[in-house]
From TrEMBL:
It comes from Cyprinus carpio carpio. The keyword Signal does not apply. Its cofactor is FAD. It is found in: Cytoplasm; Midbody. Residues 634-696 form the LIM zinc-binding domain. This is Molecule interacting with CasL protein 1. Coiled coil: none annotated.
C-alpha cells in the first residue's frame, strides 16, 4: 500500500508503463523534478537517480544497468568522458548507439523531428538481440517482450524501451527538432548543428562526434552511397488491429514462406483470389503485421497499379497507385494466408490516421561505401559515423535490419571509444571499415554464439575477425581537411609535373601518375640519369626486368643520397597496386636530393619535406620526422628485420613493423592507446593481459598515443 502513495514510486511506475513518446518524456521530467535530479548533469545523473529512488520495483533494473556499465570496455564511464556526441534520429539504431555512448561517459544528445513513435511494423529479432534487450531491462518496460517462442517486436515498442533506458542514463532526447545541417567551427565555437526551431537549446550544443541514424533521408556530405539494383521486387506492408482475443492468439505466425519452398500455397493464393506473391511473413505483436513481395502482373491485374511503366519510380508513384485497391490486395493476402482465422480484420492506423498499408520499391537498395569519416576545420576534428538505414538499407522480408543495425551500433561505439582514448584517425577509421566489410555477411549462424560475452568489442561478436583487413592507407579519402585541400593538390601537381619534366624523352618511360608509372623501375633510373648520368648506364637496362631496375635505382639513391627505399624491389612486381602514399614520400625525397646541390646525405630537410607533403595529403602522423631515423641499419624492435618507412609504427621509443605490434602473452594485435608496457622486461601487453606480471606492471605504465 505504501508504494501506491509514494509520489516518486507512482511517477516511476507511470514512466515505466508509458505507451507514447510524449508520455514517457513528460513522466520522466516529473520524476526528475520530484527527486530533484538534473538530467543535464549527465556524469552523475544515473547514480543520483538510483540513490534517490529507493523502490523495490526499480532494483532489478538498476542491477541490469549496473552489470552492463561495469564491463571493462566502458572504463567506469571514463573512456569518453571528454567527448560530446550528437545523434540524429531516435529510431532503434540511433537510441541503441546513444545508450552505448552514454555508458562510455560521452555527453549525448539525440535529435528527431518526429514527436511520436507511430511505426507499427514488426522487427524480427536474432537470438543475440533478444539477449541484449533483456539485459537492458526490456521485460521491465514491456512485459510481453519475447514471451515463449515470440522473436519479434514492433518498432514503436522497441523505441519506447530504448528511449526509457537512454533517459535513465542521462541522454538528452529532443523530439520535434529538425536537423538542417552541420555548422563548421567559428572562432572559439566548435562543431554545432543548425536546427529548427533555431532558438532550441540543441542549437548551442557543441560536439566532436556526429552519428547519423536518420535513415536514408539524411546522409552527411562526404559519404558516397552505392545503389544495389536487382530484379524488380515490390514490397507491401500491412498492419491490422490486434484485439488480443483467444481466437487471434490461436492463429499461427508465418516466420517466412517463400514461393520456392511452398509452391502449392502460392499457386492456390493466385488461382483463388488473384494475389501473386513471391513470399509472405506474418508476425503477431501490437498489431497483426504482414510483409510480402508481390508480382507486378497481379498488381496491374487487380488495379493496384494503374499503368505499367519501365521506370520503377513512375510505376510506384502515388498518382499511379490505387490506394483502395492496395488495401483490398493486402487484406485478401492476409486473410487467405491465415486461413481466414483472424476475425474482423481491420487496418491499424498510421501516424496520419490512415489505414496502415504501404507499398515500397525493394528493387533498389542503398548502402554507404564507408561507415565513417573525419572532418577537420580550423583545427577542430569531427568524427562522423552512419548507423541504421543511413548505413545499409535492409531487405525487410529477410528480417536482418535490426540485428545488423545493432551490430553496427556496437561497432560504432567501439570506434568512438578509441576516438576518446586518442586513437589516430586513420587507424580507427581503417578498423571501423574492417568491421563494416563483415556486416552484410552476418547471419545468426556465423556470429558468435557466446551471447553472454557480447560487448562493443568486435572480437566478442565476430569469430576470427581481422581488425586490420583494411589498412590506414586505404581510408585516406575519409579524412577531410579543407585547410589542406589546396596545399595537397598543389603539392601533388608540382611533384608530378617535376617528374614528367625530368623523364621526358627517355625510352620506355611515360610518367602519368605517382603510382603505376613507376612499376618497371625505368622512370626512377631515368630520373637519376637526368641529374647524374655518370651513375647509371640506361642502355644496359631491360624494361621487363622490373626487380633489377628497381634494385639498381633503390641502391643508388640509398648509397648516394641516404634515401632508404620505401619497399623492396621485388615487391614492385608482386604487389597488386603500387601504393601512392609510398611513392609520394619517396619521390619527394628524391626531388629534394637531386635539386639541392650542397645538401649532405641524410639531411633532415629532405625527409621533413616529404613528411609535410604526406601530412597535408594523408593526415597520417605515423611517418618518422627525421631521415636519420630511417637509415638502412634500422631494424624492427620485435623481429629484428629491416624496417621500411611505410611499414613502421612506434611506441615507448621503440620502432617496429606495425604487423609485429602484438601482445607478448596472447599475440593479439595492439593499438596505440590500448596497451601496457613493462619497461623492465621490455614487453608489450594487451589491456586484458596487462596484469600478467603484477610486480612488473607496477613499474610499467599504460601506453598512450605517441
Amino acid at each position: 500500500m505504501a508504494d501506491s502513495v509514494n509520489p516518486s514510486h507512482a511517477l516511476f511506475d507511470s514512466f515505466v508503463q508509458a505507451q507514447t513518446c510524449k508520455e514517457t518524456q513528460q513522466n520522466f521530467i516529473e520524476l526528475c523534478r520530484h527527486l530533484k535530479v538534473e538530467p543535464r548533469d549527465y556524469k552523475h545523473f544515473y547514480s543520483k537517480l538510483k540513490d534517490r529512488l529507493n523502490y523495490w520495483k526499480a532494483k532489478d533494473l538498476w542491477q541490469k544497468i549496473d552489470k552492463r556499465a561495469a564491463h571493462p570496455d566502458y572504463e567506469q564511464g571514463q573512456a569518453c568522458h571528454q567527448n560530446k556526441c550528437l545523434v540524429l534520429g531516435a529510431g532503434p539504431c540511433g537510441l541503441r548507439t546513444a545508450i552505448e555512448l552514454a555508458l562510455l561517459g560521452t555527453q549525448v544528445a539525440v535529435l528527431d523531428k518526429r514527436v511520436s513513435f507511430s511505426r507499427n511494423n514488426v522487427l524480427h529479432l536474432w537470438p543475440y538481440t533478444i539477449r541484449d534487450l533483456l539485459n537492458l531491462g526490456a521485460k521491465k518496460f514491456y512485459g510481453r517482450f519475447c514471451s515463449g517462442s515470440i522473436h519479434h517486436i514492433s518498432i514503436r515498442q522497441l523505441q519506447l524501451i530504448l528511449l526509457k533506458v537512454a533517459l535513465i542514463l542521462g541522454v538528452e532526447v529532443h523530439t520535434g527538432v529538425t536537423f538542417e545541417g552541420l555548422l563548421e567551427p567559428s572562432g572559439s565555437t566548435g562543431w554545432r548543428a543548425q536546427v529548427s526551431p533555431g532558438s532550441h537549446r540543441a542549437a548551442a550544443f557543441e560536439f566532436d562526434v556526429f552519428i547519423s541514424a536518420g535513415g536514408g533521408r539524411y546522409v552527411p556530405d562526404g559519404f558516397k552511397i552505392k545503389e544495389l539494383r536487382g530484379k524488380l521486387a515490390i514490397g507491401i506492408t500491412a498492419n491490422f488491429v490486434n484485439r488480443r482475443t483467444k481466437q487471434e492468439a490461436q492463429v499461427q505466425e508465418i516466420s517466412g514462406v517463400a514461393r520456392i519452398y511452398n509452391q502449392k500455397f502460392f499457386q492456390a493464393l493466385h488461382s483463388e483470389i488473384g494475389v501473386d506473391l513471391e513470399n509472405i511473413v506474418y508476425y503477431k505483436d501490437d498489431t497483426h503485421y504482414f510483409v510480402m513481395t508481390a508480382k507486378k502482373g497481379s498488381l496491374l491485374k487487380k488495379g493496384v497499379i494503374k499503368q505499367d511503366f519501365p521506370d520503377v519510380n513512375q510505376l510506384l508513384a502515388p498518382a499511379n497507385v490505387n490506394q483502395k485497391a492496395l488495401e483490398e490486395y493486402a487484406y485478401d493476402a492476409a486473410d487467405f494466408s491465415t486461413d481466414h482465422m483472424l476475425p474482423d480484420l481491420e487496418f491499424a492506423r498510421d501516424h496520419a490516421g490512415r489505414p496502415d498499408v504501404a507499398m515500397f520499391d525493394f528493387t533498389c537498395m542503398h548502402r554507404a561505401e564507408n561507415a565513417s569519416l573525419v572532418k577537420e576545420r580550423k583545427g577542430k576534428r569531427l568524427l562522423i559515423a552512419l548507423v541504421g538505414d543511413s548505413l545499409v538499407e535492409p531487405f525487410w522480408p529477410l528480417g536482418t535490419g535490426i540485428a545488423r543495425g545493432f551490430l553496427a551500433a556496437f561497432d560504432t561505439a567501439w570506434m568512438v571509444r578509441n576516438w576518446g582514448k586518442g586513437g589516430l584517425p586513420l587507424e580507427l577509421l581503417a578498423e571501423r571499415e574492417s568491421m563494416y566489410q563483415l556486416l552484410s555477411q552476418t547471419t545468426p549462424e556465423n556470429i558468435s554464439k557466446n551471447y553472454a560475452s557480447y560487448s562493443i568489442n568486435p572480437s566478442t561478436r565476430y569469430p576470427n575477425i581481422s581488425m586490420s583487413s583494411i589498412k590506414p592507407t586505404q581510408v585516406i579519402h575519409t579524412v577531410l581537411d579543407r585547410n589542406a585541400d589546396f596545399t595537397s593538390l598543389r603539392r601533388l601537381e608540382d611533384l608530378l609535373s617535376w617528374c614528367q619534366k625530368n623523364t621526358a624523352g627517355y625510352k620506355h618511360v611515360k610518367v602519368k601518375d605517382l603510382s603505376e608509372s613507376w612499376r618497371s623501375g625505368m622512370a626512377l633510373c631515368a630520373l637519376i640519369h637526368n641529374f647524374r648520368p655518370e651513375l647509371i648506364n640506361l642502355s644496359s637496362l631491360d624494361e621487363y626486368n622490373i626487380t633489377r631496375n628497381n634494385k639498381l635505382a633503390f641502391d643508388l639513391m640509398e648509397r648516394e643520397f641516404g634515401i632508404t627505399p620505401v619497399m623492396r624491389a621485388s615487391e614492385m612486381i608482386t604487389c597488386e597496386k603500387i601504393d601512392q602514399l609510398s611513392m609520394v614520400v619517396y619521390l619527394t625525397q628524391i626531388r629534394n636530393a637531386l635539386t639541392e646541390k650542397d645538401t649532405p646525405a641524410g639531411n633532415d630537410g629532405l625527409f621533413l619535406e616529404a613528411c609535410i607533403t604526406l601530412k597535408c595529403i594523408f593526415n597520417d602522423p605515423v611517418v618518422p620526422v627525421s631521415s636519420s631515423e630511417v637509415g638502412g641499419s634500422e631494424l624492427c624492435y620485435f623481429c629484428n628485420k629491416h624496417l621500411y618507412v611505410l611499414e613502421r609504427g612506434s611506441a615507448e621509443g621503440k620502432f617496429f613493423h606495425r604487423s609485429c605490434f602484438n601482445c607478448y602473452q596472447c599475440g593479439s594485435t595492439l593499438r596505440q592507446g590500448g596497451y601496457a608496457f613493462l619497461s623492465d622486461m621490455g614487453r608489450f601487453y594487451c589491456e586484458l593481459h596487462s596484469a600478467a606480471e603484477d610486480e612488473e606492471v607496477d613499474e610499467g605504465h599504460i601506453g598512450s598515443q605517441v
